Structure formats: C-alpha cells, structure tokens
C-alpha cells in the first residue's frame, strides 16, 4: 500500500481513524509546516523460519541450557518430595 500524507492537525483530529487504518496495513507520513516529521507504519511481523527454529532446538542459547548434573527425572522427584 502506498504511504498517505497527512498533516499533524489531521492526525490530531482523526487519531482513531488513523490507528484503525494502520491496523489494516496502511502507512502514513505526518507533515508539519510542509516538512515530514514522522512515519506511522504497522509493526513488522517477525516469523521464525523452519531452519532457524530447528537450529534453536538443536543448539539452544546458553541461558536455556540445563545446568544441573542430575537428570530431569531426578530433579522432578526432588521437587515433588519437598
């Protein structure tokens, strides 16, 4: 979709309509005194590709790794018995 140009006053008066349009994928450039001051765009959807998901599963970051010498079963039994 092409970017629409609106004035700062138009944005202030029609904020709800602009937000609804942004939710539907429209983009806006806000102008103040004939100069662009802001771009309003919908957020980019981040998707995880299958390759990245598989790599994360095989080689998780260090903060996700299990650091105990005990097995998961032993840890669960200890927590259950407390």
Topology of this protein?
Blueprint: E1 3-7, H1 8-13, H2 15-23, E2 27-32, E3 35-40, H3 50-58, H4 72-81
Parallel strand pairs: 1-2
Antiparallel strand pairs: 2-3
Which characteristics define this entry?
three-stranded mixed beta sheet, elongated, alpha+beta, 4 helices, 82 residues
Question: What does the model show?
Answer:
With 82 residues, this protein is of the alpha+beta class. Helix content is 41%, strand content 21%. It is built from four helices and three strands. Strands 1-2-3 form a three-stranded mixed beta sheet. The longest helix has 10 residues, at 72-81. It is elongated and about 65 Å long.
Question: What's the helical proportion of residues?
Answer: 40-55%
Following the backbone from N to C, one meets helices and strands in this order, namely: EHHEEHH
- Inertia-based shape: elongated
Cα-atom radius of gyration: 25 Å
Structural category: alpha+beta
Major sheet description: 3 strands, mixed
Alpha-carbon distance between the two ends: 59 Å
Spatial arrangement of strands, main beta sheet: 1-2-3
Low-confidence stretches: none
Question: Mean pLDDT, rounded to whole units?
Answer: 84
**Contiguous helical run count:** 4
Estimate the strand proportion: 15-25%
Number of strands: 3
């Amino acid at each position: 979709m092409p970017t629409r140009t609106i004035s700062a006053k138009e944005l202030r008066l029609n904020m709800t309509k602009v937000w609804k349009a942004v939710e539907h994928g429209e983009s806006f450039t806000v102008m103040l005194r004939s100069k662009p001051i802001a771009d309003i765009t919908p957020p980019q959807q981040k998707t995880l590709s299958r390759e990245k998901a598989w790599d994360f599963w095989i080689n998780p970051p260090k903060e996700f790794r299990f650091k105990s010498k005990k097995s998961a079963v032993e840890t669960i039994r200890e927590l259950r018995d407390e």
